[in-house]
């Protein structure tokens, strides 16, 4: 990673933790359960920066959620590792999907961003299920598949659905894409979207 990519990764980590703090304290649904929109930053990092940038940003995005849902929630010390890893998986998968679909390089990229965001969450979803169904009962004697299926999964699906439409709006915004593109020096990692290029394709 060059200096600009590192600064972008740090910026996404900070953004994710700020978004988590805002959503956590305004959308606390109960003990250990609260709204969490920190994945916005992980998805931005993955879609625009690629798998590695998405993974590292996701890990840093999960720091505050790991603390609040870990030692200060129901996850104890295990949450300090589980939450960052889960969000890292989403950032990683978003980067893989983005490169595979050529998001930003093709027409209607903003429309592809909706299913791409939903697909990017699947690995984290599976990991979170394993976290609640197997890791928490084994290490902490709590959690369980029922907790995940009844309380965590419906909330997560709602959050990711909202995030998917937000990502579609961001990717479809040429000004935002051009701003993010300035953090990268390798064109194959993230192309700059310009209005003139979009018009040539239409």
Shape: globular
N/C terminus separation: 34 Å
What's the order of the H and E elements?
A: HEEHHHHHHHHH
Strand content: under 5%
The neighbouring-strand order within the major sheet is: 1-2
User: What is the assembly state of the chains in this entry?
Assistant: single chain
Looking at CATH, which topology would you report? Answer: Arp2/3 complex 21 kDa subunit ARPC3
Q: Roughly how many Å is the radius of gyration? A: 17 Å
CATH domain class = Mainly Alpha
**Tally of DSSP β-strands:** 2
Q: Report the sheet with the most strands, covering strand number, pairing sense and barrel closure.
A: 2 strands, antiparallel
Total DSSP helices = 10
């Amino acid at each position: 990673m060059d200096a600009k990519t590192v600064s972008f990764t740090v910026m996404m980590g900070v953004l994710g933790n700020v978004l988590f703090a805002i959503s956590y304290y305004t959308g606390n649904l109960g003990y250990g359960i609260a709204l969490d929109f920190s994945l916005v930053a992980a998805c931005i990092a993955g879609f625009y920066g690629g798998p590695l940038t998405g993974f590292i940003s996701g890990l840093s995005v999960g720091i505050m959620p790991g603390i609040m849902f870990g030692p200060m929630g129901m996850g104890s010390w295990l949450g300090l590792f589980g939450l960052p890893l889960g969000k890292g998986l989403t950032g990683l998968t978003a980067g893989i999907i983005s490169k595979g679909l050529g998001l930003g390089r093709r027409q209607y990229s903003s429309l592809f961003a909706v299913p791409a965001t939903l697909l990017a969450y699947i690995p984290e979803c599976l990991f979170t299920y394993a976290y609640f169904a197997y890791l928490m009962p084994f290490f902490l004697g709590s959690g369980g598949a029922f907790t995940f299926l009844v309380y965590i999964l419906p909330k997560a699906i709602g959050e990711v659905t909202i995030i998917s439409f937000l990502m579609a709006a961001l990717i479809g915004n040429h000004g935002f894409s051009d701003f993010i593109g300035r953090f990268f020096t390798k064109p194959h990692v993230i192309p700059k979207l310009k209005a003139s290029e979009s018009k040539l394709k239409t």
